[in-house]
Amino acid sequence: MPIKGSRVRSAVMWNALRGVLDRIAPEAGQSDVVDVGGGTGGFAVPLAELGHRVTVVDANPDALAALERRAAESGVSVRAVQGDAVDLPDLLGPDAADLVLCHSVLEYVDDPGAAMAALAGTVRPGGSVSVLVAGQVAAALHRALSGHFDDARMVLTGTSGRWGEGDRMPRRFTRETLSELVRGSGLRVAELHGVRIFADLVPNGLQEGDAGSADALLALESVAAVHPVLRDLATQLHLVADRLPSAEGLGGRPPRGSKP
Ligand SMILES: C[S@@+](CC[C@H](N)C(=O)[O-])C[C@H]1O[C@@H](n2cnc3c(N)ncnc32)[C@H](O)[C@@H]1O
After folding, report:
1. Ligand 1: nearest atom to the Cα of 38
2. Band (250; pLDDT cuts 50, 70, 90)
3. Residues with CB under 6 A from ligand 1
4. Is residue 151 in some structural domain?
5. Which domain holds residue 52?
């Protein structure tokens, strides 16, 4: 069956997540997964369907209500906890998860460094954190390709990667700024993928033009995702970070409210 555009857009992400889960739970056993800012369960519900124990922490009670409905319709159980990302250690306790997801959230939080430290304190030694963020370079590319050249310049020169007051995205990241944020929390950067490189540049008509083109695009995306130049142009940057299995403490900033 040909792969439709939306699946091409998410395939790189899911391939990476499957790789992380295989590493964490090689015998296909259950893992404890915490999805921070998991919203209505776009990742949480499929992960629960795979058999993992999933908790979603989200600030928005309406999103959590929709998540609970979606989980019920899929016949799975997902724990929903209302709260802020920076309060994870208080909400769930330390070392609560084998895998922590934080997808499309760091763009919106008040203090990304504090949120990242909270994620790092929630993942167990030997576990991983999966972070997905909006890419700054891609935003400049897309604004320029639609004729908004001043916007594109502002995205590239401003520190938060925005094109001004009309830009609804509070901040974007480059490979460098994201990696620095993750390393500051004491985690080790393990993998970085570009998600949606060509898929967001090629018109939909070409992506689904014939039976083979979506499959060929997916194969291209998978190669480009880890290409040292092309991955930086992706609409989203996906980073997998590991908490080392040793007994060493996290070297980064302590979560909010923790004792020095
Ligand atoms: C763009 S949605 C992403 C949803 C989901 N992670 C996904 O990738 O489909 C952002 C989510 O983050 C949540 N959020 C924003 N700021 C948050 C914070 N400080 N703490 C917890 N959740 C937050 C929002 O309520 C929303 O559900």
Report:
1. 6
2. low
3. 37-39, 42-43, 58-60, 63, 84-85, 103-105, 108-109
4. yes
5. 5-135+173-242
